[in-house]
Amino acid sequence: MIKEAIKKVVNKEDLGYYEAYAVMNEIMSGETSAVENAAYLAALSTKSSGMETIAEISGSAAAMREHAECVEHDMDVIDIVGTGGDHSGSINVSTTASPFSLEGRTALVTGAVYGIGFAIAKALAGAGATIVFNDRTREAVNRGLASYKSEGIEAHGYVFDVTDENAVAEAVRTIESDVAPIDILVNNAGIIKRVPMTEMKASDFRQVIDVDLNAPFIVSKAVIPGMIERGGGKIINICSMMSELGRETVSAYAAAKGGLKMLTRNIASEYGELNIQCNGIGPGYIATPQTAPLRERQADGSRHPFDQFIIAKTPAARWGDPSDLGGPAVFLASRASDFVNGQVLYVDGGILAYIGKQP
Ligand code: NAP
Ligand code: GCO
């Protein structure tokens, strides 16, 4: 990795995020000379060949500092010791930006026109990520673009169905050519069909499995090779309470989300050594269009029985808001979770820990 990265520095090629990190780690290892370090830092910050910069900055440490700021890669040159003239000395650098920063990274969030996906994308954008999202229709994508714009986010929208392997592969190629390599994938798109199992058509069962389990496999399969090539990446699968618990009428959904938990663990197991972290978020009961039927007011104006049930089952005594998922998503998308892999982070207000309020 480091040799490839330095070759890119010399050839004036841009460095990918993880390549830049490899170069910075080399610098922080103290194995390279001050002038080489300054060249690398300059290349990282100016994306031009560091070798040309040596001449400019060999005159003084101050010049090195000026050229070698690495804000773009969350790093500052905090101290340069060296005369420059005899190319001796050292550069001390440190990561000054927050480990939760997503500056310089690109995130694909599937099915993120509204609901949980939109809230997660908004939070990732707030941490500095470039946002790419998709939906099945141009109309929905346009609606999404307008929603992001109203939040001050210049998102990139693409039309594709996450269950269509060819369309997904083509979309990933187009995104990585048009926008940037995908550093973060959030497999959010999902459906639910609430039907008693013995009354459920097999085709409906298969459709839920297709969207909620097969699609995260398909999209992850399309994105992982590029992540490996660039030295790493982050995958977040949106699981569910039903990754752990069952209930009436959601057999297909629970089977899919239970499978998604194990797919999460398997991606972590298979690609962890290639610096890919794959984790899940397990939302509790969140107020989105998907759960609207469970919260409908009754004819007499009273709360839906299921609504009352969830309030009694949740220590927080409330439904979750999609924005409750933003912080956990930023954590799992950022360097702050580089040693977290194969986990499902339940954002459920405490449901999984609680027997429920006595009636
Ligand atoms: P939602 O309101 O129903 O939104 C789902 C999104 O996925 C919609 O934008 C939908 O697009 C998109 N989508 C569905 N099928 C797709 C496909 N084949 N290709 C591309 N996009 C597709 O759901 P949500 O409540 O925000 O949930 C988002 C995720 O969180 C889902 O995976 C869900 O299972 C999970 N989750 C939700 C809750 C909750 O309480 N709400 C709790 C735990 C987990 P369209 O508008 O075109 O249909
Ligand atoms: C349901 C709900 C849940 C939520 C969520 C809970 O019918 O039970 O839709 O399945 O969507 O998955 O975590």
Strand content: 5-15%
Number of strands: 9
| Cα end-to-end separation | 60 Å
The quaternary state of the protein chains shown equals: single chain
SS field, number of helical segments: 12
- What strand line-up does the widest sheet have? 5-4-3-6-7-8-9
**Which molecules are bound in this entry?**
NADP nicotinamide-adenine-dinucleotide phosphate, D-gluconic acid
Assign an overall shape: globular
Order of helices and strands: HHHHHEEEHEHEHEHEHEHHE
**Taking Cα atoms only, what radius of gyration do you get, to the nearest Å?**
24 Å
Structural class: alpha/beta
Helix content: 40-55%
Q: What is shown here, in short?
A:
The chain is an alpha/beta fold and about 350 residues long. Helices cover about 45% and strands about 15% of the residues. The protein is built from twelve helices and nine strands.
